[in-house]
Specification:
Elements lengths: L1 H21 L1 H36 L1 H17 L6 H10 L3 H11 L5 H9 L6 H12 L3 H21 L15 H14 L4 H36 L4 H11 L1 H10 L4 H14 L1 H11 L8 H27 L1
Helix pairs in contact: 2-5, 2-10, 3-9, 4-5, 5-6, 6-15, 7-8, 8-13, 8-15, 10-11, 10-14, 11-12, 12-13, 13-15
């Protein structure tokens, strides 16, 4: 059986190579599209946050936020207060930044593998600027629809987090919230760091660029796969757009917006694709966490639940939101 799997893998890889040679024009277009997405959306939106987050972690912001938000994080999600850093930074920067923040705190022994797995599951947000800019204006040409997509996407993730609150709950932090305590913990973390500020910045830049190049490689690979699938499968255009979205999110969202279907269905499909994230996002997150023992299966289940919940919210709220 193992030999058969090896043979099948080799056949698939050789066929992909054949497609790249014979359909080089369409393949090059998909590579060019991935470079444009990276240049215009991913790099500008993620690079500053990656660098800043690395510096903030070294300067003790997770400890500061952990002391201030431990009551909220424990009561709502039953998780350590320090994960508030991952939660709020992920809302601002979007995926796969949550994996990078989670990895940094896990490697720093601030959270264990169960807490890392848990926080990863409900902090997979799409970048708000991407939703309000690219999705709502460039793709759907409807700001109101974009706001509703953002709302359903974010609230759906909160439902996922609340539903997972009893998944390996963290030990309750009994100390009262104290601004003085938070500042003290932040200061202790900063002075315990033996690297100079110049070394911190340099390491942050190198780490951020390496992660972004990894993301570019994964996106390009997934776009090449969607191109090969499109060249070989004769599917209904809507199904094909959704399939593309579940492999590479940005391309799928663009194709869904071009379909001749009602705006409500476009919004439902859009928020579903955004909430699942696409195979590309999943591969990016798995690659970032490859040197840890953080579990992937709960993350996959959470993405499926998130896609279902956010889609249902869109279906329920669309008519009220768009007519109010």
């Amino acid at each position: 059986m193992k030999k058969i799997v090896s043979v099948l893998i080799m056949i698939i890889l050789l066929y992909i190579g054949y497609e790249i040679l014979t359909e080089s024009e369409t393949i090059l277009k998909s590579v060019d599209f991935s470079l444009n997405v990276f240049k215009n959306n991913i790099f500008p939106s993620l690079f500053p946050f990656f660098v800043l987050s690395n510096i903030l972690i070294k300067c003790g912001l997770p400890e500061f936020m952990g002391n201030l938000f431990k009551g909220i994080m424990n009561k709502i999600f039953k998780i350590k207060g320090v994960t508030a850093f991952i939660f709020f930074m992920s809302i601002i920067s979007g995926n796969p930044a949550n994996a990078k923040y989670t990895r940094e705190l896990y490697k720093d022994d601030k959270i264990n593998k169960y807490e890392a797995t848990k926080i990863l599951c409900f902090t997979c947000f799409s970048n708000p600027l991407f939703i309000l800019g690219s999705v709502s204006i460039l793709f759907l040409n409807n700001k109101e629809a974009g706001l509703l997509i953002l709302f359903c996407h974010y609230i759906g993730n909160l439902f996922v987090g609340f539903g997972m609150r009893n998944y390996y709950p963290s030990k309750k932090e009994n100390e009262k919230t104290s601004l003085k305590k938070a500042i003290d913990e932040m200061h202790k973390k900063r002075i315990s760091n033996k690297d100079s500020f110049g070394e911190v910045i340099t390491n942050s830049l190198v780490s951020s660029i390496n992660t972004l190049l990894l993301i570019l490689g994964v996106i390009t690979t997934c776009l090449v796969l969607t191109t090969i699938i499109d060249n070989n499968l004769n599917l209904n255009s809507v199904f094909q757009s959704v399939l593309n979205g579940f492999i590479e999110m940005t391309q799928g969202l663009k194709y869904v917006s071009l379909e001749a279907i009602p705006l409500k269905l476009k919004c439902i499909l859009t928020v579903m694709i955004l909430s699942f994230g696409g195979l590309s996002v999943h591969m990016q997150i798995m690659s970032i966490l490859s040197d840890t023992d953080i579990k992937y299966l709960p993350f996959l289940c959470a993405r499926i639940c998130h896609a279902v919940i956010s889609s249902l919210l869109m279906y329920i709220l669309f008519d009220f939101w768009m007519t109010s």
